[in-house]
Design brief:
single chain; 3 helices; DUF3261 domain-containing protein; globular; signal; 212 residues; eleven-stranded antiparallel β-sheet; DUF3261; alpha+beta
Length: 212
């Protein structure tokens, strides 16, 4: 009973949040950050490390539609903190859309990704510790098929997948860049945890499919 109530609450919250993004003019949002796909979608993971997002957002026949609960925690040399969000992801071969809503119902992040360009809008109060482009790369590392992640990584990084876990390493030192735990049967149903050792943050995501 509790799980059904939680599922209904997550879906309702995310759908309300997504609707609000589409219909409300929210003043606390910066101008869109747009980067073109003409030369590939490049995301800086760290100095000298670039992650090349797939030009086409999704190379699968299946349409993905999920509601999520997201908890981000960070602890670097200057500060630490925790933030929670409701999320909604809709992915089709020609377009991926990601929306994060905070606990007050305010839009925190909206990402609209097509083969032509990626448009990112962040609220002014969204934690600066989280680069939204890198957050998008984290989502791809966590949920996209292994071969897509391999193609996206630079030559001096590699990904290895075991029983419900992915490990991304810096090949020149062998150090871990990130480790990812995800559901084995269906990555879009259940809890995934990404731990970024490079920047000392963690993202915990609980997902529920909402599509048919």
């Amino acid at each position: 009973m509790h799980s059904r109530i939680l599922k209904s609450a997550m879906i309702l919250a995310c759908m309300i949040g997504l609707s609000a993004c589409e219909t409300m003019n929210l003043p606390q949002v910066t101008l869109p950050d747009v980067f073109s796909g003409n030369a590939g979608h490049k995301v800086a993971l760290a100095d000298g490390l670039e992650f090349t997002l797939p030009t086409a957002p999704w190379d699968e026949d299946e349409t993905i539609d999920v509601a999520q609960q997201v908890e981000a925690t960070w602890n670097n040399q200057t500060q630490s903190g925790t933030a929670t969000f409701q999320g909604r992801i809709n992915i089709q071969p020609d377009r991926a859309r990601i929306v994060l809503i905070d606990d007050l119902g305010r839009r925190a992040v909206e990402i609209d990704w097509t083969a032509k360009q990626i448009i990112i809008q962040n609220a002014n109060w969204f934690p600066q510790e989280f680069d939204t482009k890198r957050l998008l790369a984290d989502i791809v590392m966590t949920y996209w098929p292994l071969d897509a992640v391999e193609d996206a990584l630079p030559d001096n990084m590699s990904v290895h997948e075991g029983f419900g876990e992915r490990t991304i390493r810096l090949d020149d030192t062998g150090r871990k860049y990130a480790t990812i735990e995800h559901p084995i049967k269906d990555v879009w149903q259940g809890q995934a945890i990404l731990k970024n050792q490079q920047f000392n943050y963690r993202i915990k995501i609980n997902s529920i499919r909402t599509g048919n």
